[in-house]
Design a protein that fits this description.
It is a single chain. By secondary structure, this protein is mainly β. It has one domain (49-373). It contains 1 helix and 30 strands. The strands form 3 sheets. The chain has a 19-stranded mixed β-sheet that branches. Helix 1 links the parallel strand 3 and strand 4. The N and C termini lie close together (7 Å). Residues 1-41 have low confidence and may be disordered.
Length: 374
């Protein structure tokens, strides 16, 4: 076991007690959450967004999008106006989308997946203002964007490598997404599936999302991302996947996130209590259906990078490989950098050639600074 010196201290994050109110509007897909003491709790209750110990600087490209001038507003100031139909129809319009559902946290259960149309950009922002929870109601994926899906309008002859749309989701909680049986682009993406353009996640939380429990490459209970423009990274900033026991996400691979040939820059974020529930790895062992790798993060493909800064990965679980991280660069060009981060107490699996809890080829460069892996 190799351990790097930690140069910063840990503190416990605050716990917010929450309960559902007895008020609400039955049948409109909304309910409300209040904290003890009468002030509004985080939307949907649960742990806060981000790693409370994360102190890494956030580059300009990874900052929240400016929503001071909204293209579209969901709601008229009342909870009853913030319905599934309003979300789905407004997301289809693109542009900068905000919510006006009243001053209190609100959960909106979607009756169908909200889908991005590729000709409504170039910049598309969905900002929940820290008050909005979108739920797949345990039945469907929450959000979908695919530049190669003709139904969502082709805008380029190179749909697999086009610059737009630039999709940002921020200040949102996404819960109870379920992409089981939804096999577009190979399946996965319990809460969100993205292919093409650019994608960024800021100040978001992912709780209790699911996708198919078996499959060799299928994964990403929270996020599944493919084919980012020119190989530029997906930014995940100050976001939480799971965070506490009972809030974790699970899929065949990649309990938190999954990708093929995509680079990631993950800053000041938290992955915990997620589970890769498949079995047999990739390629699948005889008598298995494959999967079970990448408790928090599953990266497969060729030229790609994974950068962690100010991020904590703990208490994730696998059945095959990479209890924290599975990173396989098939052409042996990828690399991992880990700075000011903690990877600890992730369980299960095997094939840990350099560091515990990280599965990769022996020749994959892994640079670790000011971090603990134990």
């Amino acid at each position: 076991m190799r351990k790097c010196k930690v140069l910063w201290a840990f503190v416990l994050g605050s716990f917010i007690a929450a309960c559902s109110s007895s008020g609400g509007n039955a049948g409109n897909g909304t309910n409300y959450v209040w904290s003890v003491g009468g002030s509004p709790a985080l939307a949907g209750g649960g742990p806060a967004a981000g790693n409370p110990d994360g102190k890494c600087p956030v580059p300009a490209d990874a900052q929240p999008a400016n929503t001071s001038s909204s293209s579209h507003v969901i709601g008229d100031g009342t909870p009853a106006s913030c319905t599934s139909a309003a979300v789905v129809s407004t997301v289809a319009l693109g542009g900068t989308i905000t919510f006006n559902c009243g001053p209190d946290p609100i959960k909106i259960s979607l009756d169908e997946t909200a889908k991005i149309f590729n000709d409504t950009g170039p910049d598309i922002v969905i900002d929940g203002g820290g008050l909005v929870t979108l739920s797949g109601a345990g039945k469907r994926r929450i959000l979908y964007m695919d530049t190669c899906d003709q139904a969502q309008h082709w805008t380029s002859s190179r749909c697999d490598n086009q610059d737009s749309p630039h999709l940002t989701i921020q200040n949102l909680t996404l819960i109870e997404g379920n992409a089981t049986g939804q096999l577009e682009e190979g399946g996965g993406g319990g809460a969100v599936l993205v292919r093409g353009g650019r994608f960024k996640v800021v100040n978001c939380r992912f709780f209790n999302n699911y996708c198919d429990p078996t499959g060799q490459d299928l994964g990403g209970a929270g996020l599944r991302v493919l084919s980012q423009y020119n190989g530029l990274p997906v930014y995940v900033v100050n976001s939480t996947f799971g965070g506490e026991d009972g809030y974790g996400n699970q899929c065949s691979n990649g309990g938190g996130i999954s990708s093929i040939g995509v680079s990631w820059s993950i800053i000041n974020s938290l992955f915990s209590y997620n589970h890769a529930v498949g079995d047999g790895g990739n390629p699948a062992q005889p008598g298995t259906q494959g999967g079970g790798s990448g408790g928090a993060i599953y990266n497969d493909g060729n030229e790609m990078t994974l950068s962690l800064c100010g991020t904590r990965i703990e208490h994730n679980q696998v059945n095959a490989y990479g209890s924290a991280i599975f990173f396989v660069s098939n052409n042996h060009t990828g690399n991992i950098t880990i700075d000011q981060s903690v990877i600890t107490n992730n369980v299960g699996g095997s094939w840990y050639p350099k560091y515990p809890q990280i599965s990769s080829h022996d020749d994959t460069p892994i640079t670790v600074t000011n971090s603990a892996i134990q």
